Amino acid sequence: MKKILFLFLLLGMVQGIWAQPEARRQAAAQKKAAQQNGDTPTLRAQISFPTALPMDEDVVWRRDIYRELDLNNEANAALYYPVEPKGNQMNLFTTIFRLMMTGKITVFQYRMDGNESFTAADRVDPKSFLDNYHIYYEKQANGRIKLDNSDIPSREVKSYYIKESSFFDQRSATFHTKVLALCPIMTREDDFGDGGTRYPLFWVKYDDLAPYLTRQQVMTSNLNNAVVMSIDDYFARNQYKGKIYKTNNLLGQTLSQYCTTDPAMAKEQKHIEAELVAFEKNIWGNQARKDSLDSIAHAAKDVKGSVRKNRRSTGLRGASANTGKVSRVKSKQAKNRTSSASGSARVTVRRERH
Description:
By secondary structure, the chain is α+β, with helices and mostly antiparallel strands. The chain has helices at about 1-35, 45-50, 90-100, 125-130, 205-215, 230-235, 255-260, 260-280, 285-345; strands at about 60-70, 105-110, 140, 145, 155-170, 175-190, 195-200, 200-205, 215-220, 230, 245.
């Protein structure tokens, strides 16, 4: 009996010894997960910083447009400054770069045909990205990568490719333009200073970025520095300006492939912009044509009214003329009677006394 009790006590002690490290390991794992997910937007954060609803796939009309945003343009400068982070303020590429390095978003390689592909085979490894573009970093003893703000190549990212979709939502009967993907373009000067070489870095889904961009404020005015908005609002309100370089078409061609000259390219870009504006303006019919038809109808009514009025006035003038003629005849007859009566000799008879 004593041996059995001793065995139970020994077994309990062993379980306690093994349970304590397991509990510590679980606590450490939970703490690490909490640190890694510290910047991940929670449900409450998503409610406090709402983003635009995703576009439905069953819309009745849509057109995908690819644009190039030049950050030297004043309308797009809000995405470039500050070049290096200042407190909580940072530009768009620094935000994307930090999210990529911490594993909060996934980026996908830029293919030679320029089309985006969001498959697992096209995912970009952050460390390989640093090595491929010769970005300096330090590898710590625990395997983590340390980067200084000055080593982030945000100064060299001076333009972006964006893919936007203009679509008509039949559920709400509204027209929208939504950004679907972004591709930062790095421009590096060569050793001789003859010109920079452009490197499209990667594609990233905008919906993956949106929860983080709602909390990132940028200045949007040179005259009033108090005017700020979130980067998500900046894209949602289409504050950017960029030239069209490609549309989704059956042949998969860019504008430069079928527009051989610069004037032809500019003409085609204006033509596409005009098509988008015309579709949004004429969703419920051609208002100009409707106005012209209404004006024609009003003009026809005015013509009919004037004809009737002229007929009435002509009739009144004829009646008044006839009345005047009759009155003139009557007055003439009365005058003739008067003159004839006055012209005849009067005969008086006097009685004579005899």
